[in-house]
UniProtKB/TrEMBL annotation, chains A, B:
Gene3D superfamilies: Tetracycline Repressor, domain 2
UniProt-listed PROSITE patterns: HTH_TETR_2 (PS50977)
Protein name, as recorded: TetR family transcriptional regulator
One Pfam match: TetR_N
Lineage start: Bacteria, Bacillati, Actinomycetota, Actinomycetes, Pseudonocardiales
PANTHER family reported in the protein's UniProt record: HTH-TYPE TRANSCRIPTIONAL REGULATOR RUTR, HTH-TYPE TRANSCRIPTIONAL REGULATOR RV1816
Presence of keyword Membrane: no
């Protein structure tokens, strides 16, 4: 879990206490999500567990959506740190996929909060996408290649419409490879975490390794 | 929606009435799922909306899990029928992927109930897998190929451990191709339906077509 109370530099006791309470609220929230699903998240129930009144808790999180946003931000932060650390250690695409799978399996609720069924009525704020852009930037470096000629109709399309990838200066074949990498990784993980691969009896890691090996 | 009251052959008025009430309960359940998520599903709330008492409703569904199972069974039935109809019309793998995507987009909640975040505490009964085996059988036919020599370590593994695919008599390369097809399809659909492709501004159908074209 990403701890708000973990970094104390330049904070006074009141701010540290606030961070500790927010961390504790988030710990209870993850337990509720595992037990009943994210849509059943209740700030009043968390307040009760913590021996606080509802209104007192609302001083730490203004509402359900702010709490969900904090959880999603922590989850993305943890994923982005994991991905960047692997990249700095000189990972290949196949090894990176295995690292991300391990990250997802170590805490499925955290993965599912980002990539699972959307929470009805919840909309993530724009700054969340800044963290996902960090992840994308690493993917584009890992999937970069010498061969820069657009090969397929989708490559050509990606070259024309650079709304999202433009600022990252990657070539269309690289963007296409990064998208394929991400698609296949998400395919294995979503099937594995929703239990659809269990009856098949093989190691999903083998499937994943081959899916991302020949991009 | 798959209607229990749609097939009346050999049923008496009491059975028809029962099927109609069950259909109405399921309609309310889908509305609740869209509004609040599947974990917030409440038989008592549905009973209230239908002007019934809770105990009266429980004569039609013995509990939340039985209702969820009925919804999952309907969703699988609809997907299996869609897949089989495409196969009988002589579909290619690329066209089949597009048909399944259309099915998912036409009713995202139905897709997400099968492939999205698992419902905490819910376990599907074994007979549900019989319907998913129907879908697998079509995939294996569509992904069948003349080239039957195991190519990769995963192919060889699939050839040795035939716990799940054994009865379907497909070769390991065909099973591997069907798994890749399904993985990539699920990857695109889960990213698309959880909103992760929206900011990228391209047509996910283009990505999907290329992902399943070169299996």
């Amino acid at each position: 879990m990403v701890m708000e109370s973990g970094v104390d530099a330049g904070r006074n006791p009141r701010e540290r206490y606030r961070a500790q309470v927010r961390d504790e609220v988030k710990r209870h929230a993850w337990e509720q999500i595992a037990a009943n699903g994210v849509t059943a998240l209740s700030l009043n129930a968390i307040a009760k567990e913590m021996g606080m009144t509802g209104p007192a808790l609302y001083r730490y999180f203004a509402g359900r959506d702010e709490l969900i946003t904090a959880l999603i931000r922590d989850a993305y932060r943890s994923l982005a740190d994991t991905v960047r650390a692997a990249h700095e250690a000189g990972t290949t695409a196949v090894a990176l996929a295995a690292v991300i799978r391990e990250w997802a399996l170590s805490d499925p609720q955290r993965y599912l909060l980002i990539y699972g069924t959307p929470v009805p009525g919840y909309h993530a704020p724009d700054d969340i996408t800044a963290i996902s852009d960090e992840i994308l930037a690493v993917l584009l470096e890992v999937c970069g290649t010498a061969e820069e000629t657009p090969q397929s109709p989708f490559d050509v399309f990606l070259g024309m419409d650079r709304r999202w990838a433009g600022k990252l200066l990657a070539s269309s074949p690289t963007v296409h490879r990064a998208l394929s990498f991400w698609t296949r990784l998400q395919g294995v993980l979503s099937l594995e975490l929703s239990g659809h691969l269990t009856p098949m009896g093989f190691d999903p890691g083998l499937l994943l390794a081959e899916e991302v090996a020949d991009l």
